[in-house]
Structures are given as structure tokens and as C-alpha cells.
Design goal:
The chain has 165 residues and is of the alpha/beta class. It has one domain: HUPs (Rossmann fold, 3-Layer(aba) Sandwich), CATH 3.40.50.620. The protein has a six-stranded mixed β-sheet, sandwiched between helices. A hairpin with a 2-residue loop joins β5 and β6. α3 packs parallel to α5. The longest helix has 31 residues. It starts with 12 loop residues before the first strand and ends in a 5-residue tail after the last strand.
């Protein structure tokens, strides 16, 4: 008797990175459609960029900085909650939402590896040439550095990798 092992060509987990932008909204719609169509788990992540402003020259500046970071954290948590609600309104089912702090590119890639995501979906916009000469943007960096397939959804269409790197 031969056992036949079925290989699923569809991802079992999709990681969606969102920041609430127009491009991220398009990525959310695409991720919901992909998740529903393939039966994949949908995970949503929002990463708050944190850069410590050390050293603190005065205690007043430190208090202001800490208050600003706390305000941004609350805003990030609310944004993530709002995006999850929007995804559910679109007919999607979110397996888990993840709030991270740090470098967004590194955190999205790290979470994709931790989850063993079959696909990372994110929004991206075409940047003008003069901005690109100073370096790649968020979506381009994730696209280049992730070991898992990445789908970048933007106002001008889709771009994605077809095989893991």
C-alpha cells in the first residue's frame, strides 16, 4: 500500500502587516480574500517604531519623551484593534493579532519566521525615484529580506515573490 502525501500549495498561515494607511487597507482586503479562499489562518501585526532618545539631558525632556512613547503605544494598540475589526467587517477571521515595538521591518520578518507564515502580506506604495536613491522603503526591505514569500499590495497593483528565498 502506497501512502500518498498531499502537498498544499496554499499557505496555512498568512501574516498581514498593517499601519492603517490606504495601501495597508488594500493589503487587508487582499489578505482577507486570500485567507478565506485558501482556508489559511490570518494573523495581523502592527509594529510601533521605537527609537530611544538617549541620553536624556534633562528630567523634563525624559518625562516628555516617555509620555509621548506611552501616547504612541496607546495609539498603536487602538489602530491594531480598529484594523482587526475592519478585517472582521470584511468577512475575515483573525486567528491572532500581534502588537510589536521596534524596527518594523525586522519585527515583521521575525514574526513571520516565528509563525512559519506561508505568506507575508503588506501594503506598499511606489516611491518617487529621488526618495528611492536614498534607500529602500519598508515594503521593499521586507520583500528583499524575508525568507517567506511576500505579497506587496499597493495602489498600482500587486508585486510578490513566488518562492521562498
Amino acid at each position: 500500500m502506497h501512502l500518498v502525501r498531499r502537498v498544499n500549495i496554499f499557505p496555512t498561515k498568512i501574516l498581514l502587516a498593517t499601519d492603517g494607511s490606504t495601501e495597508a487597507s488594500l493589503a487587508e482586503e487582499a489578505a482577507v480574500e486570500l485567507s478565506n479562499g485558501t482556508g489559511s489562518e490570518l494573523h495581523v501585526v502592527h509594529v510601533l517604531r521605537t527609537t530611544p532618545e538617549l541620553p536624556y539631558p534633562r528630567s523634563l525632556a525624559k518625562e516628555r519623551s516617555e509620555a509621548l512613547v506611552e501616547w504612541r503605544k496607546l495609539g498603536g494598540l487602538k489602530l491594531l484593534d480598529d484594523r482587526v475589526r475592519r478585517i472582521e467587517d470584511l468577512g475575515g477571521s483573525v486567528a491572532a493579532s500581534h502588537y510589536k515595538e521596534g524596527d518594523p521591518e525586522k519585527e515583521v520578518i521575525r514574526l513571520g519566521e516565528e509563525l512559519d507564515a506561508g505568506l507575508i502580506v503588506l501594503g506598499g506604495q511606489r516611491r518617487p525615484w529621488f526618495e528611492r536613491i536614498f534607500g529602500a522603503g519598508f515594503s521593499e526591505n521586507v520583500f528583499r529580506r524575508a525568507k517567506h514569500p511576500v505579497l506587496v499590495v499597493g495602489g498600482r497593483g500587486l508585486r510578490g515573490s513566488t518562492v521562498p528565498r
